[in-house]
Design goal:
Blueprint (H helix, E strand, L loop, with lengths): L1 H21 L15 H26 L7 H15 L2 E5 L3 E7 L4 E4 L11 E5 L6 E9 L2 E4 L7 E2 L2 E4 L1 E2 L2 E2 L5 E5 L9 E5 L5 E12 L2 E6 L12 E9 L3 H24 L5 H19 L5 E2 L4 H9 L1 E7 L2 E7 H19 L1 H11 L1 H6 L4 H27 L1 E2 L8 H11 L11 H20 L7 H29 L1
Antiparallel strand pairs: 1-15, 2-3, 2-7, 2-8, 3-6, 4-5, 4-8, 5-6, 9-15, 10-11, 11-14, 12-13, 12-15, 13-14, 16-19, 17-18
Length: 486
């Protein structure tokens, strides 16, 4: 195994030197090459970190003599789930559900009688064909509300939202006063609208209350036309799930899916290829269904989450500007790599995993619960796919469920095979997987810098996997010949 790692490190070094020379002008000025450009190196480290996490996960499965083709789709599903769980909504307080509007009698029937809606209250109708109507309450009897304005058409469905009048607005439009609004908080939104239907939504950045008025600071000026005659609706901010809970839930779901993979393989004796290929199709389909095949993102939370995936720890500065830094995900990769190496080489479960891959029947006769170890390998693979998937999703900020994560399983498998993991099982190292991932990312960088057509990317990945398998087979045969001679 040490020989394999040395070999792949040599390949990485030769590849880096060759690419540096190929992108330098003249070729011997390596330090001025595009490849050794600091921005390019930071990007390479970031790619290495994210794909390396996936590679370590799939290495556990390959060492157990299995395969996992669902990684790319699982990455997509985990990214989509995180975006859905962290979705931020802005909704008005206590809206009234409208059952019907009778235009001739100016009568609105709601689902339940309003608690307090005195005559003269301004309300806004939303959700129906006539959405955006600004109305004034004339009288209320039970669940029947009569308005003063002439209505143009009958309506069904929709909702009524109570509004307050804007009593004054500053000349710069960045603050306004409304009647006492105790429920307003920083981070909520204020929807301003005029009787003619014009509407704008502003973020609340400050709240102060004095006597019978609330002063609200706005993120930007809504415009001069809202200086007088405007009404406002408070939209309360609600986040579906706290960030730590959302991350934990995604990890639990991914771990559960890995458990299902392992049980189908060990209990029903299905082929790993078939199980994970079905997972590839199922998870992609579920991701597209959950989002209605629309892109998913993190919205305003991207500012909070973004530094986790794209932030850097600065090492070199020019003045106040950072010129080189280590991406934060790279430190996470190092942590995962160290823990994975300790697990594989220093724990009884890691030794069981290696024994399982070398000879499952012999391992079983030795008293190893091979089914449990196989399940563990698939659970670990899915958990690391979830970690990588969430980091990828945060970095990209927008997830297209039809394409996000495509071919990621190929990169992970290629990295593991290049790093010395035998597809026959029973052999592999975490250091080798990280090195193999680095080779794959340098090859991808080569395609970009040398302007090789992107259509050849899959060809190069396939050739790399083939060469890795061929090398593994040649090494195995050479070792076998040496054992026979001795």
């Amino acid at each position: 195994m040490n020989g394999k790692i040395t070999g792949i490190l040599s390949v990485l070094l030769v590849l880096c030197l060759s690419l540096a020379a190929a992108t330098a002008d003249p070729w011997y000025k390596l330090l001025e090459s595009q490849f050794l450009n600091l921005d390019n190196l930071m990007n390479l480290l970031s790619r290495l970190a994210l794909y390396g996490i996936l590679g370590i996960g799939v290495a556990f499965v390959i060492i157990s003599s299995g395969i996992d083709l669902s990684i790319g789709s699982l990455v997509c599903l985990c990214g989509v789930l995180l975006a859905i769980l962290l979705k931020v909504d802005y909704q008005p307080e206590r809206p009234l559900s409208v059952i019907s509007i009778e235009a001739a009698s100016r009568l609105i029937t709601v689902a339940e009688a309003p608690r307090s809606l005195p005559a003269g209250t301004v309300v806004r109708f939303t959700g129906g064909v006539g959405s955006g109507l600004v109305l004034t309450v004339d009288s209320v009897e039970g669940d029947r509300i009569t308005v003063r304005e002439t209505l143009k058409r009958d309506e069904r469905d929709g909702r009524l939202v109570q509004a307050v009048a804007v009593t004054s607005m500053s000349s710069d439009g960045l603050s306004l006063q409304v009647p006492l609004l105790n429920s307003a908080s920083v981070g909520d939104q204020l929807q301003l609208f005029l009787p003619d239907g014009a509407v704008t939504t502003q973020k609340i950045v400050s709240v102060s209350t004095a006597e019978n008025f609330t002063t609200l600071g706005l993120a930007r000026d809504p415009g001069s036309k809202y200086r007088s005659g405007a009404s406002a609706v408070l939209l309360k901010r609600s986040q579906r799930t706290p960030i730590p809970a959302a991350i934990l839930l995604v990890l639990l779901i991914a771990g559960g899916l890995g458990l299902v993979h392992g049980l189908l393989i060990t209990r029903l004796h299905l082929q790993p290829f078939v199980v994970t290929l079905c997972g590839l199709l199922i998870y992609r389909g579920v991701s597209r269904w959950l989002t209605n095949d629309n892109p998913a993102g993190f919205g305003e939370l991207q500012q909070v989450l973004g530094p986790v995936a794209s932030g850097r720890v600065g090492l070199a500065y020019r003045g106040e500007d950072m010129v080189f830094g280590i991406p934060i995900p790279f430190f996470l990769l190092l942590l995962i790599a160290v823990l994975a190496a300790l697990f594989l080489n220093r724990t009884i479960w890691g030794r069981y995993l290696l024994a399982l891959g070398r000879n499952e029947e012999a391992a079983r006769f030795s008293g190893i619960n091979t089914a449990r170890i196989t399940v563990l390998a698939y659970v670990l693979c899915s958990l690391l796919a979830a970690v990588g998937g969430m980091l990828f999703a945060i970095e990209f900020s927008s997830i297209s469920p039809s394409s996000f994560g495509n071919s990621f399983e190929l990169y992970a498998i290629a990295a593991a095979v290049l790093g010395g993991c035998s597809l026959r099982g029973g052999e592999g190292s975490i250091a080798g997987v990280v090195t193999g991932t680095a080779v794959m990312q340098v090859l991808n960088n080569l395609i970009v810098l040398l302007k090789i057509p992107q259509s050849l990317e899959a060809t190069i990945i396939g050739a790399v996997i083939l060469l890795g398998v061929l090398g593994d087979e040649l090494v195995r045969r050479a070792a076998a010949r040496r054992r026979l001679k001795s």
